[in-house]
User: Fold these one by one.
Assistant:
Number 1:
Amino acid sequence: MTRLRGRAAEAYGEVGALFARARALRDDAVGHGWDSLAEGLQACSEALDVAVAQLDEALDAISETADPLETAMPAAPGLTEVAAILTATHERLMDAARALHSAAEYLEEARNWAEITDFEVLAGRIEQVRDEIEELHQDTETWAEQVRTDLGRAREESGSALEAPRRTPPSEAAKNPPGCTGLPDVVDLLDPRRFVEPPDTEDSQDAEVMRIYTRIIQMADDVPRIAQVLGAPIEVIATVKRHFFLTRHVTPTGPGQTAYGYFSPDGTQASRWESVATGCELDAGNLELLRKFVAHEYVEARLMARGLPYRSPHPDCYANPTASNQATRKHYGAHDVAPNAHASDVLKHWRRWGLTRPSAGVVGDLSRIDEIVEAAMTLLREAGRDVR
């Protein structure tokens, strides 16, 4: 475990150095008036900055994992205490693995931007570090699986009902949705400080939403169930879960201002997701709303992966002091282009951005959702947006 911690710390330092290098190159490009080059390096440095934050989170998780293994374990008097330590260890290792995987994805984005700006040396080094982090991610998951095995042995030796951790951390429920069973009680809620707009866990409604989010994040079999009910490819549902529930993003909070965190909690969408995942039947109206939500989040995720920001922090988007971020024809992001989950015509708003909607047969068919992504990418390039 100490070796994992050392490798994570080394990767953290290397990505921090890459971030500083990309930022310095960007400043040099600005000084020479090379605007397009500066923009590409700015995007590269932003992706590296997020990767640093993800690695910081992974390093914290691995460090917290090492403490109980290296200090508490020798003093543990019985199998119950050992089980508790192993369970906590497994949970933190899985947290670390998720953060490492997210860091690798952002490094891939940074590498793509470095290639676009013709900085092949920088791109090559980013790729090397990304590969190192992916290897660390795999090793971390291997350690987590070993912890599961060790706890299974402890259960066999004790002959007791010690609870083994699942492949994702166990969850429990405050209450079961009507007609649904099998949800255990949530013990540790998500840290509200990780959200762009932190929920108030002292408020009963916000606390319940946090319980739902915690259960969804810890589910292991929700993706195939929802894919089957919605008639969607599994990779579409997996992308939506990763994008909406598992990944923190850079989000505008005001004119020229951004914050890094999970999207603001949406209790309505989370409840629909959990209901289908746990075998509850939604009425036709709620099922259609869930399908629109999936379409929106999937297209948004794909467009962001191709270089379009979530939303624009440009001051023009905050011209109305009584409203939140409002996209303009010049300043908009992936959220604004993605299908509108609250409208009957989910692509009607494309006309605002000068985009031509695809054929009617594509809209609403999740098996053809990638056609919407590609149509958007083509139109965005034609509109002069810097996407790849």
Number 2:
Amino acid sequence: MALGLLLILLSCALFNNWWLLFVMAFYFLSPIPTMFANKIDEHRQNASFGLSGGDTSGVRDAGNFMSAFLLVSGFSFPLALLRGDVVEGAAAGMACAGGIVCFLSLAVYAKRYSNNDSAGAF
């Protein structure tokens, strides 16, 4: 995660254009809808005593959709700035590379610590 954020900061500092700093908001906001949706779905499954028929719910699907929207926005924002001639190509490339590193580290963290039997996990 630190390497991805370093790439974002370097893409801003080296090219003296700080618009790409807004990309970090997408990285910090992207896992939040999924976390909330999973927690809401867990409480709903506990309240129904496991009588729900499907494996997934609409709440979980909506959380995954919002997280995917933020993930795509994290990559499309530097490209939109590049298309509008606001940033240079190397800066947009560094921002996208930083996004790849950030999102992969978040995915590995989520996969590693996603055990269903932990009571204190958010």
Number 3:
Amino acid sequence: MPATDHPTELREWIAHRVADYLECAPEAIDPGVPLSDYGLDSVYAFVLCGDLEDHLGFPVDPTVVWDHRSVEELSAHLAGVAAGHRADPPETAP
């Protein structure tokens, strides 16, 4: 697991990704504002989920962006999922 699966670090990472998509400074992204308020649509949701999968090392369903609408909600949810992935050892073939 990457070092940035802590909720605070993950929140900053997601805010930086969203800022990159919007071509603005990360400080302009309010973690409590719904991502849709920034104009992020389903295309960006898919891109963000792909980036999250690469970053976290596990699949991220694109609907998670709509279920957890802000950077704050999304990072808290994904940090919990990441913790579950660390707690569950990978299955090995017999």
